[in-house]
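fyi for ur records
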Amino acid sequence: MTSAAAGSSRVSPRTVTPTVETVLAFVNTRADGSGRRELFGDGDSFAAWLAERAEFGGETVVTDADAAVARELRDALVTLLLAHSGDEESLGEPLQRAERHLRRVGSLYPLATVVTAGGVELASPQAGCRTCSEPCWLR
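which gave:
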């Protein structure tokens, strides 16, 4: 789904990168009115979702508390994404609450930018985490 001229490495703004796919998969794990079921109901269901995704590196020990943290993060991201798409119900207090939560998460689980000749990556300076694709709350 890239749109590049011959010999050009430019990527179309509509290209869905693996990181975007991961975020979309993450936010689409909640129950909704169209029959989608909650995939982070407890630690076991959250662990099963993680195990299905190669970017999380295989087996991960997950508790019910980890699933609750993931649900809170997911809900804040959903609100932010809906607000950015113009959803009126997500604006105002819901958006402010989501932004406060995301700032708190960012301070609890900081990331460092690692720039190399091969690209750019966000990595956790905290022990036990390799990259932002393995959030620190998934220990």
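Confidence is low (pLDDT under 50) at residues 1-5, 128-139. thats all i got for now
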